[in-house]
Specification:
By secondary structure, the protein is an alpha+beta fold. It contains seven helices and 14 strands. Helix 1 packs antiparallel against helix 2 and helix 5 runs parallel beside helix 6. Bound molecules: D-MYO-inositol-1-phosphate and calcium ion (2 copies). One calcium ion (CA) binds next to strand 4 and helix 6.
């Protein structure tokens, strides 16, 4: 069952990704949403329309939650597709080649399928509950890094001005105690890179469910750990995600809880 949903998510991500690849590299006009850092381009909408059309054709009864809100959610289906047509819109709009199409299928609160596609690098990250995670044909495993001092961590900055100082304090502390930090501009790709062992840990607050819905399944299916920022159960609707290779999780939690 999930296998055919997986193929559907892959087909939708590739079709939307092709549109983004063809139209990448111009300086795109954008509009603002919640604030001066929260952008939308014509291609966020067009990519979302493609994905929704592909999914609705096969699964007309499923709920669909999208960032650009092009469909009214069905409240009565247990199955919910959670879609970010361009995760990394700021990168896309500036012609910076780092963004992904993110598509997840949930049954209630349980992730069944997660797909993240980077159309510029042509990298397809796929996870299915209980079956593992892959980058194209390669099975993914998180890194074996044991300590923060040897870690490369990834994060993103909040759009909410009120959370910026808190995040900058954490950024400063992690910068002092890790090998290096990256601010990626795409949470979906940050989590995919963590699943692929290219980074060791990730934290962010002020996310939306579609930023992490697919990525968190990639991390857990690659053997990593996903929680909220206090080590409790992850809720993708809460805005907070702490994800890691498992080995540095407690060290990240300790730093995040320092006064
Ligand atoms: C954003 C990216 C970014 C994260 C922001 C998200 P968008 O998504 O994932 O990495 O830091 O919180 O909103 O707006 O490009 O879809
Ligand atoms: Ca996003
Ligand atoms: Ca987006």
């Amino acid at each position: 069952m999930s296998k055919s949903f997986r193929s559907l998510a892959i087909a939708a991500a590739r079709e939307a990704g092709a549109l983004l690849r063809e139209n990448f590299g111009q300086n795109h006009r954008f509009q603002l949403k919640s604030g001066f850092r929260d952008l939308i381009t014509e291609f966020d909408r067009r990519a979302e329309e493609i994905i929704v059309k592909v999914i609705q054709k096969q699964c007309p009864d499923h709920s669909i939650l999208t960032e650009e809100a092009s469909v009214a959610p069905h409240q009565n289906s247990h199955y919910q597709w959670i879609i970010d047509p361009i995760d990394g819109t700021t990168n896309f709009a500036h012609g910076f080649p780092f963004f992904g199409v993110s598509i997840a299928l949930y049954r209630g609160r349980e992730p069944l399928v997660g797909v993240v596609y980077n159309p510029i690098h042509n990298e397809l990250f796929v996870a299915e509950l209980g079956e593992g995670a892959w980058l194209d044909d390669k099975r993914l495993e998180v890194s074996i890094t044991e300590s923060l001092r040897e870690s490369l961590l990834v994060t993103g900055f909040p759009y909410d001005e009120g959370l910026m100082q808190k995040h900058l304090r954490w950024w400063g502390r992690f910068a002092e105690r890790t090998q290096s930090l990256r601010r990626m501009g795409s949470s979906a790709l940050a989590l995919s890179y963590l699943a692929a062992g290219r980074a060791d840990g990730y934290w962010e607050l002020d996310l939306k469910a579609w930023d992490s819905a697919a990525g968190v399944l990639l991390v857990s299916e690659a053997g990593g750990c996903v929680t909220n920022l206090r080590g409790g159960p992850l809720d993708i609707f809460s805005g907070e995600v702490l994800a890691s290779n498992g080995r540095v999780h407690q060290q990240m939690l300790d730093l995040l809880s320092e006064p």
